[in-house]
Amino acid sequence: MMVEPITLISTWGLSTGAKFVYDKIIDELKKDTTKEWAKDVLQDWLKDVFKEQASEKTGFVWDKAVKFLTAEPLEKAAETALIGFLALIDKHLAKDLELSEEQRERFQKPLTSFLKEPSVRQVLGTPFKVNSDYLDIKALKETWDDLGLRDLPNNFNWDKLGKDYLDLVKKTFDESAELKPLLQQFSF
């Protein structure tokens, strides 16, 4: 059975020792965003799979895809990734940039808007693809700027955030007995 996302985040040392201030964002996103996002991730995978397998095994691949589409482990992984992304931002703001709880709370609405943006979810879903170790952090930063969200501190390190997020997603899959077989189904 897969461990609850917030437990994984704590186990991996992503808590800052300071109060995690983005619980409201998590509650709002958990309503249906992670399921929706998991489906978006799967659709991207299917596009890649069908490009490679268009001429053979299409029915077989589709059966696996439908089974995977309803798989709870992917939804848990998506939830873990979103919570982890928030935890990484919070850790960077609290620990690395030494912002107070009050200063960090000011980012709740901007972060909610940011994470609801389809292009952001698409970028955050790229590490879920088989053999993907790339995250377009430049696109995330540009989206933040284009949305006109609250300015992040000048020394906010988007590159470090991207690297840490990739590591988190890999760890999510590596430590999940449920996800390894599902990933193998899509490795052709």
Characterise the protein shown here.
- It is built from eleven helices and no strands.
- The protein is mainly α.
- The protein has one domain.
- The two termini are 26 Å apart.
Taking the sheet with the most strands, its summary is:
none
Number of strands: 0
Shape: globular
pLDDT averaged residue by residue? 73
What's the alpha carbon Rg, rounded to whole Å?
Answer: 17 Å
* Low-confidence segments: 8-12
Helix content: 55-70%
Distance between the termini: 26 Å
- Assembly annotation: single chain
Put simply, the count of helices is 11
From N to C, what is the helix and strand string?
Answer: HHHHHHHHHHH
In terms of structural class, how would the helical and strand content be classed?
A: mainly alpha
Record the SSE blueprint.
Blueprint: H1 5-11, H2 23-30, H3 33-53, H4 58-69, H5 72-96, H6 101-105, H7 108-116, H8 118-125, H9 137-146, H10 158-174, H11 179-185
Summarize the structure.
The chain has 188 residues and is mainly alpha-helical. The protein is 69% helix and 0% strand. The protein contains eleven helices and no strands.
Keywords:
0% strand, single chain, NNH2, 11 helices, globular, NACHT N-terminal Helical domain-containing protein, mainly alpha, 188 residues
